[in-house]
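G.,

No rush on this.
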Amino acid sequence: MFPGLNKRMCAGLVAGSLMLPMGSVAAVSAQEVPGDFTGIVREKIPAVVAITTRQFVEDQTNLMPFSDFFGPFNGGQSPVQPQVREALGSGFVISQDGYIVTNNHVVQEASEIHVVFSDKETSPAQLVGRDPATDIAVLKIDPRPNLTPIVWGDSDAVQPGAWTIAIGSPFGLGGTVTVGVLSARSRDIQVGPYDDFLQTDASVNQGNSGGPLFNTRGEVIGVNTAIVSPTGGSIGIGFAVPSRTARTVVDQLIRTGRIERGFIGVRLQEITPATAEALGMPGSEGALVASVEPGGPAEKAGVQSGDVITRFNGKEIKSARDLTLAVTSQKPGTETTLTMNRGGAEQQAALTVSQREEEEVQTSAVPTPETDDSLGLALSPIPEEVRPQLGLQPDASGVFVQGVAPNSLAAESGLQPGDVIVSANDRNVTQPSEVEEELVESRQEKRPVLLRISRQGQSLFAALDVS
């Protein structure tokens, strides 16, 4: 299942033991809308497939509840019972040599994969590669006669209000066609760092996952991936990975079996109005650099914590998400430029994009606080015993956030228990009293206090509007 996607948002939901997951480029104009869509459906439906998967799971469940009465069996252990889980999704053919696109969550744990065509013929498929971050996967089957691939379209050329056509196998009903309009573009549904979905009101249901979303030229502009629904059924809010993203991922998976994403070595955060005021900025557009990775491209280019990046590779950056998408779309090794605001002055920097390495950091914490009831914030010196769990170096200094009251000013500003406040208004702090002094000064001057915090070994900013 797509990382971070909850069961009510994903077109691949679990129902009992059966899991039912969900060339040329041209623009679309209103004049091109046909009287109906029968021609497109007739031409494209042979290339849309149902995908069935099987996963073999060893189940250790005790199946002999009467063993206590009849004595031990197999050393008191139940035999391992292999279980088979079946799943269903959709996909589409993109080449005459048998490459097929679908969703990662349709095939990610499959032991066997089969492709079912509209003529009911079935072919075994091999997994070529998958990208959990965008929920795209590529399969390969042996070529078959008269295999007609689908052509990619330009997702950036389709505007809200344009007709869209979804074809797939909802609930196992192969060759199902639904029609609607493009509701919105560039949707961030909070399921991953590269969210940039097309939204459509064409019905997308369980089993549609991985199927194509067409424009009125019969070109694929998206890969149906997720829905929003309180019941698991379609309510007219479906999401598709845009062809711009899907095509790039698919090409890389076919060519190398893996994905290369650009990386410049910065940790970003959005700019709130309070943060903008604390930084002395006129507005909240741009990407705030919370920390810079030592030895990374950004550090080599002179980027510093507290800089606000406003342009990258000539493209305007209005948010941290904009910069993330812009950087990851660059091929490693690309030479580019960025524009940043530092202390009210605009600066330029040149850098070479490197390869992104995915990693995870985990942490925990505990200790004895001083509490600011007005902020809902409990602070203490850093307990020595939790330094390793916090990802802190032995000589690192700061003030430990032991507690944050729900619905308090501290909580609304993004502070979390386990954070370490490193500085307040650019003053390095080691004791709760030093943080309090800066809070008092900011209150008197009627301005937000800017905190730099360390969280799970990463640095970021928080602005508390104490005015």
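When you get to it, here's the other one too:
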Amino acid sequence: MTRPRWAAATAATLALTLTGCGAHVSSSSEKNDGSAAVTIDNCGQKVTYDKRPERVVTNDVGITEIMFALGLEDRMAGFVMPDDKGELSGVPWRDGYEKVTWLSKKEITKEVALDARADLVFAGWNYGFGEDNGVTPDALRELGIASYVLTESCRNGRGNARGIVPPLEALYTDLTNLGKLFGVEDRAARLIADFRKQVADVRAKAPRGADRPTVFLYDSGQDKPYTSGRFAAPHDIITMAGGDHIMRDLGDSWTAVGWESVVERDPDVIVINDYGDTSAEQKKKFLLSYPPLAGVSAIKHRRIFVLDYVDLVESPRNPAAIAALAAYLRTVKR
């Protein structure tokens, strides 16, 4: 997910006419035994990869950690990621960061992919892909580089709006697809089973009905808050943790809203997305001092919870984030 300063893509280009790395749109499917082609459904398009990628370049932290969680470090040429995504040395997949080259701390470019001799770029719309920077699946195809689009970021046909499946299903879809593409289906299945169980255990303890606290996700922005609709990871993180996501009616992933809608919906809790040039403490200070929010329940009772960026974008850390938020929400009395 990109902040407002990283301009949103401006045209709906869902068709993945991929030919790089032997990838192309196809209506047939073949079993991948290590050399045969494999066809997967990516953003509603059947895409066939004629060989298993060997030099993958990923963009952003959640996408990179999906590859690490699947044990695919040896299939990676490197990753692109700003250095504002928190401390990485203590994360579950820290070995991956030690093994794989950090190619750039800026946005991905065609030059970065070419210099890395990438045969596949794993990114997403507004997570590296965008017409504004010239990095799209079609543009990469012309360079002989295949693409895989993060499912959370799939455009849904309503302008630039993103999201076609519930957020956790997007994670499970990508794990399944990449497991098939790289021949690690068993590992992908185990991850998904473990994640589903972890989430189910949390939901069993979560508040229900009228006891569910209402929650607003604050990413950034002062004139207008940047937040999550129902197709970004925070929606499932909030709801499965036992909260009521106040922006669930937004048919998008990440988007801006007006402060008046936040005030009107009066959240019991505000979750801060911790990343970027503005620290979580600075964001909290702004929220607590912003006059229009003074009457909001979360501000009056100082109920503000912080999660890291990688917890709140599609990533293998989503289930742990659900557990962490759930523990906090169980302390909130309405």
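The chain has a mean pLDDT of 89. The two ends are 32 Å apart (CA to CA).

Enjoy the weekend,
O.
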